[in-house]
Design a protein that fits this description.
Blueprint (H helix, E strand, L loop, with lengths): L13 H13 L10 E6 L2 E7 L17 E2 L2 E2 L5 H11 L8 E4 L5 H10 L3 E4 L6 H9 L3 E4 L6
Parallel strand pairs: 5-6, 6-7
Antiparallel strand pairs: 1-2, 1-5, 3-4
Helix pairs in contact: 3-4
Length: 152
């Protein structure tokens, strides 16, 4: 049975499309505290993905009884943005002038890495209370857009 093609109104915008993929990437997180996903996109093509969690091949994060927690953060986990940048570097994929879609606002360390990687735009969902990270991204003239998608 054939179905009619979606109309332009039914199709997701590019930002919604890529945020949907970032959400799917987050589902692979190995951190039991929080699941975050990030994708690096340039010219409407996905260059790299990353999710937060323990280093590859090591045991997953464990937060029972405060395990792996230091100063209210998971000390074992690498952030999704960091992992996406590392994956691009590992496979020799340049990400200069790319856009990063992330299911959470970048922290200060991730913001600095995104600046140094040459990222031009960050689209994120959710909040991460880090005003200095926002200031760093803005000072570097990186476009920062909070995506508000349809209710889930």
């Amino acid at each position: 049975m054939m179905t009619a093609p979606l109309s332009a109104v039914d199709r997701p915008s590019w930002d919604e499309y890529f945020m949907n993929i970032a959400r799917a990437v987050a589902s692979r997180s190995t951190c039991s505290r929080r699941s975050v996903g990030a994708i690096v996109v340039k010219d409407k093509r996905i260059l790299a993905t990353g999710y937060n969690g323990a280093p590859a091949g090591l045991r997953h994060c464990d937060h029972t009884s405060g395990g792996d927690m230091r100063d209210c953060h998971c000390a074992r986990s690498t952030h999704a943005e960091q992992n996406a940048i590392v994956q691009a570097a590992k496979y020799g994929t340049p990400i200069d002038a790319a856009t990063v879609y992330c299911t959470a606002q970048p922290c200060l360390t991730c913001a600095k890495l995104l600046v140094n990687a040459g990222v031009r735009r960050v689209v994120f969902e959710g909040d991460y209370p880090d005003e200095l990270a926002v200031a760093i991204l803005r000072e570097a003239s990186i476009e920062l857009d909070q995506h508000v998608g349809p209710p889930r």
